[in-house]
UniProtKB/TrEMBL annotation:
Chief place of localization: membrane
Molecular-function annotations in GO: metal ion transmembrane transporter activity
Signal peptide boundaries: none
Protein name as annotated: GDT1 family protein
Length: 187
C-alpha cells in the first residue's frame, strides 16, 4: 500500500503544471467532442510508458551511454514541439491526421511527451525503491497522472473558448522546444 500511495502522490504533485497538462488542453481544443477518447488515450499511454519505465528504466540508464541521454530527450522534445505546429487537415482528406482520431493522437503524443519527463523518472525511482511492488508503482503513478490530467480534459474546453487555438499551439511548441534546448544545453 505504501508503494501505491507514494507513487500516486509523487506523480500527481509532479504533474501539476507539467507540459502534459498543456498537451491535454491542446488535445481538448482539437477534439472538443472526444474528451473520453482523450482520457482513455492518456490512461493507455501512461500505463504503457510507466510500465516500461518500471520494468526497463534502470536497465536503460545503465546501458545507454550517459552522453546520449540529453540528445535523445532534447531532440524528442523539439520534434514534438514542431509537430504541434502542423495544422491538421480536414476530416475527409485522405491521409489527414484526423483519420486517426483523438484516441490514437493522444496515445502517441502522451507517450512521446512522457519520455524523459519528471513523472517517468519518478516512476523509475519509485520502481527501484519498491522493487517488490512494481504493479503498485505503475498503478499509483498512472493514477497520479490521471488525477492531474482528467480535470484538464473535462474542463479545458471552457478555457479554450477564452483562448485562441493558435495561441495554445504556439505556446505548446515553445514549451516543448524550450525543454528540448534545455536538455541539449546539458551536453
Amino acid at each position: 500500500m505504501e508503494a501505491f500511495l507514494s507513487s500516486t502522490l509523487a506523480v500527481a504533485i509532479a504533474e501539476i503544471g507539467d507540459k502534459t497538462q498543456l498537451l491535454t488542453l491542446f488535445l481538448v481544443a482539437r477534439f472538443p467532442a472526444q474528451r473520453m477518447a482523450i482520457i482513455l488515450g492518456i490512461l493507455i499511454s501512461t500505463v504503457i510508458n510507466h510500465g516500461i519505465s518500471a520494468l526497463f528504466g534502470a536497465w536503460l540508464v545503465e546501458w545507454v551511454p550517459e552522453n546520449w541521454v540529453p540528445w535523445i530527450i532534447g531532440l524528442s522534445f523539439i520534434a514534438v514541439g514542431l509537430w504541434v505546429l502542423v495544422p491538421d487537415k480536414d476530416d475527409d482528406e485522405e491521409g489527414g491526421a484526423l483519420k486517426y482520431g483523438a484516441f490514437i493522437a493522444t496515445c502517441i503524443l502522451f507517450f512521446i511527451a512522457e519520455i524523459g519527463d519528471k513523472t517517468q523518472i519518478a516512476t523509475v525511482i519509485l520502481a527501484a525503491r519498491y522493487e517488490d511492488a512494481l504493479i503498485a508503482v505503475v498503478v499509483g503513478t498512472t493514477l497520479g497522472m490521471m488525477l492531474a490530467n482528467v480535470p484538464v480534459a473535462l474542463f479545458g474546453g471552457w478555457l479554450m473558448q477564452k483562448i485562441p487555438l493558435h495561441w495554445v499551439r504556439w505556446s505548446a511548441c515553445g514549451l516543448f522546444v524550450l525543454l528540448g534546448v534545455a536538455s541539449l544545453t546539458q551536453i
